[in-house]
Design brief:
Its main location: membrane. Interacts with PLAAT4. It is a single chain. This protein has 4 domains: 135 residues, Sandwich (Immunoglobulin-like), CATH 2.60.40; 312 residues, Coagulation Factor XIII, Chain A, domain 2, CATH 3.90.260.10; 109 residues, Immunoglobulin-like; 93 residues, Immunoglobulin-like (Sandwich), CATH 2.60.40. Helix content is 13%, strand content 34%. It contains 14 helices and 40 strands. The strands form 10 sheets. Strands 2, 4, 5, 8, 9 and 10 form a 6-stranded mixed sheet that branches. The radius of gyration is 30 Å and the shape is elongated.
Length: 828
């Protein structure tokens, strides 16, 4: 773990750029010892069931408590993600088949349940109707508020005098009042929307239709059946094969996560891949991300996350509370959550955040080991959050905000400080403007807020600031690194007093950039306010296509409009500097525009500034250009090139100031993302006007070229070819490829060694599709010298001959660290 939440230099403003201390991943557990520590080797029910644990459970509604700082107490933590079905240990029941006397004797005439068929096959009606047929699980997975069917096999014919009761239980000590013990009398009205009806009785088989509550707790429930007859009472023993997963239901109008658009549900709940955008507003990059929410083990990992935070089971039916806990647990700060953040540039003890191509490998590693996974940055946190929330049934999308502000002092403005000559004072610039920042929107009603704030809610799992909001689960989130859910409508209107974490998110999208200049007496004066510099573009993947959708209008009123100005100034009035707008600058008649050509990694580049005199008089401008590398978080390195020039402008005239930059000049200074920051400042001699502008641009990296060699059919081996050309004149060392795609290939790591300068390489890989339909196969390349290289290909998979359906293991086991020889190499 990191020494502190602000220890990595590429993340926080005001830190000098210096050799980093690498955040350390947690050490790998010792497999033999882990089951001996803290009762980790006890059976599943002994840890999750009070009556089976040989001890009293005082806390009757909390998730499994970690037995040490790594949270070994959760049942899911000891599951092997690649295994099929439920826990393989011998099932333990709360009551084996017993009669009313409790002596275990089966009397003649008793109504004994000899078997249960939950119709849980992925091809059965239950899974199809509940839109859960893609989950690579054999257990029944249903969505709350929607009926499902089951069959009971009985020892004799069902009679009208017989009484049957279904029971669902979850948690350490289930209670009816908390919704963790659900009792459903068959043929009678249940409570809270739960009920069961006999639809057909044929011989010794009973067909039931079971209705679940639209407010049900989500999670994995134990299931049992009780019968009562004149001959006595019987209870079916618990069987892990009969466990039932219940999820949120965007298809149910009574569920507060309901989404009234089928194309939205297809995209934001069922789509297993998506696009994440990065770069700068002028140079938008995109990468495909494999969410993989239906891959086997992922659903268990999502529930394990709630267990690790110790979230009370009684609160797991509330999407507001669930999404808030997820925002805290996807990052590792405070709670040993899923991902360790690292912005230092040194990823030698883990995975470069740019190398991930999806969430599956990350979540399965966390489930398998219980240790936080190294490393993540904002798009990784957001990609994993989308996976988790979609998996649990919440309509969720990944959102990118370009020029995203990080306000450290709750002023709701971005304050940038300069010396007397308008050179940046980086040691004072604690606020930072990220080139881009990625978070999530999820859809739900907000019964905890006044009317008008339903719909999209922001959830941000990237650890930036600790939460100060109080909530029903404040003991889980107060003062820790979590953010949201926050109504997008409250952000749009500057209602920063609305929960949760609205002031911070508002500043990310709609604050102003305030430039302060140091005066001769040491004081600071506002010399320029840039009103359109923050939240300049907010985008997400469009529904039903790979196009980019601009959703800025949802977060902001039109820039410069009265409504937008009112929102900003209303929000600022609640900040720490409420009078910042009282002192505005003078009229401006010299305009400045910064330009950068489309720069490519490894090549020379050119930046330029265009000055235009809009006045009727001559103007003299003293212009300063300072160029430095920058992390995408806005944290800058030292200035490595600068230019100063005085420009004479006739009335109505324009002039351009250029600064060429050679590859050899910027190469020694490059950091993650290949981004650079141009600080431009100037002074108009005649009018006293101050010019100030920050312009960020990035160096483009090449894509991987993927080609499918032959048709893709379920269960049949298929081959893909990957081609890459090194754009740099230097050797790439320790090159690693990653390859994965839901329904195609479990996460696979390929070590390919070194790739020479300007060299082209080709490699081929085989995979066996396990699910039909359109799929995305995604690849990435990473090395110490070059990252942010990825590619994708769509694979249309045909059903297996004879329509054999799914295979039991999705694409085989993950392959980690496999050494792959290149098929061919070529020069430039």
């Amino acid at each position: 773990m990191m020494d502190g939440p602000r220890s990595d230099v590429g993340r926080w403003g005001g830190n000098p750029l210096q050799p980093p201390t690498t955040p350390s991943p947690e050490p790998e557990p010792e497999p033999d010892r882990r089951f001996r520590r803290g009762g980790g080797g006890r059976s599943f029910w002994a840890r999750c069931c009070g009556c089976c644990s040989c001890r009293n459970v005082a806390d009757d509604d909390w998730g499994p408590e970690p037995s040490d700082s790594r949270g070994r107490g959760s049942s899911s933590g000891t599951r092997r993600p690649g295994s099929r079905g439920s826990d393989s240990r011998q099932p333990v029941s709360r009551g084996s088949g017993v009669n009313a006397a409790g002596d275990g004797t089966i009397r003649e005439g008793m109504l004994v349940v000899t078997g249960v068929d939950l119709l849980s096959s992925r091809s059965d009606q239950n899974r199809q109707e509940h839109h859960t047929d893609e989950y690579e699980y054999d257990e029944l997975i249903v969505r709350r508020g929607q009926p499902f069917r089951m069959l009971l096999l009985l020892s004799r014919t069902y009679e009208s005098s017989d009484r049957i009761t279904l029971e669902l239980l979850i948690g350490n000590n289930p209670e009816v009042g908390k919704g963790t013990h659900v009792i459903i009398p068959v043929g009678k009205g249940g409570s809270g929307g739960w009920k069961a009806q006999v639809t057909k009785a044929s011989g010794q088989t009973l067909n039931l239709r079971v209705h679940t509550s639209p407010n049900a707790i989500i999670g994995k429930f134990q299931f049992t059946v009780r019968t009562q007859s004149d001959a006595g009472e019987f209870q079916l023993p618990f069987d892990p094969r009969n466990e039932i997963y219940i999820l949120f239901n965007p298809w149910c109008p009574e569920d507060i996560v309901y989404v009234d658009h089928e194309d939205w549900r297809q995209e934001y709940v069922l789509n297993e891949s998506g696009r994440i955008y990065y770069g700068t507003e002028a140079q938008i990059g995109e990468r495909t991300w494999n969410y993989g929410q239906f891959d086997h083990g992922v659903l268990d990992a999502c529930l394990y996350i709630l267990d690790r935070r110790g979230m009370p089971y009684g609160g797991r039916g509330d999407p507001v509370s669930v999404s808030r806990v997820i925002s805290a647990m996807v990052n590792s700060l405070d709670d040993n959550g899923v991902l360790i953040g690292n912005w230092s540039g040194d990823y030698s003890r883990g995975t470069n955040p740019s190398a991930w191509v999806g969430s599956v490998e990350i979540l399965l590693s966390y489930l398998r080991t219980g240790y936080s996974v190294p490393y993540g940055q904002c798009w990784v946190f957001a990609g994993v959050t989308t996976t988790v929330l979609r998996c649990l049934g919440l309509a969720t999308r990944t959102v990118t905000n370009f020029n995203s502000a990080h306000d450290t002092d709750t002023s709701l403005t971005m304050d940038i400080y300069f010396d007397e000559n308008m050179k940046p004072l980086e040691h004072l610039n604690h606020d930072s403007v990220w080139n881009f920042h990625v978070w999530n929107d999820c859809w739900m009603k907000r019964p905890d807020l006044p009317s008008g704030f339903d719909g999209w809610q922001v959830v941000d799992a990237t650890p930036q600031e600790t939460s100060s909001d109080l909530s029903p689960l404040s003991h889980l989130t107060l003062g820790i690194f979590c953010c949201g859910p926050c109504s997008v409508e409250s952000i749009k209107n500057g209602l920063v007093y609305m929960k949760y974490d609205t002031p911070f998110i508002f500043a990310e999208v709609n604050s102003d950039k305030v430039y302060w200049q140091r005066q001769d007496d040491g004081s600071f004066k506002i010399v320029y306010v840039e009103e359109k510099a923050i939240g300049t573009l907010i985008v997400t993947k469009a529904i039903g296509s790979n196009m980019r959708e601009d959703i800025t209008y949802l977060y902001k009123h039109p820039e410069g409009s009265d409504a937008e100005r009112k929102a900003v100034e209303t929000a600022a009035a609640h900040g720490s500097k409420p009078n910042v707008y009282a002192n505005r600058g003078s009229a401006e008649d010299v305009a400045m525009q910064v330009e950068a050509q489309d720069a490519v990694m490894g090549q020379d580049l050119m930046v330029s500034v265009m000055l235009t005199n809009h006045s009727s008089s001559r103007r003299t401008v003293k212009l300063h250009l300072y160029l430095s590398v920058t992390f995408y978080t806005g944290v800058t390195g030292t200035i490595f090139k600068e230019t100063k020039k005085e420009v004479e402008l006739a009335p109505g005239a324009s002039d351009r100031v250029t600064m060429p930059v050679a590859y050899k000049e910027y190469r020694p200074h490059l950091v993650d993302q290949g981004a650079m920051l141009l600080n431009v400042s100037g002074h108009v001699k005649e009018s006293g006007q101050v010019l100030a502008k920050q312009h960020t641009f990035r160096l483009r990296t090449p894509d991987l070229s993927l080609t499918l060699l032959g048709a893709a059919v379920v269960g049949q081996e298929c081959e893909v070819q990957i081609v890459f050309k090194n754009p740099l004149p230097v050797t790439l060392t320790n090159v690693v490829f990653r390859l994965e795609g839901s329904g195609l290939q479990r996460p696979k790591i390929l070590n390919v060694g070194d790739i020479g300068g300007n060299e082209t390489v080709t490699l081929r890989q085989t995979f066996v599709p396990v699910r039909p339909g359109p799929r995305q196969l995604i690849a990435s390349l990473d090395s110490p010298q070059l990252s942010q290289v990825h590619g994708v290909i769509q694979v249309d998979v045909a059903p297996a001959p004879g329509d054999r359906g799914f295979f039991s293991d999705a694409g085989g086991d993950s392959h980690l660290g496999e050494t792959i020889p290149m098929a061919s190499r070529g020069g430039a």
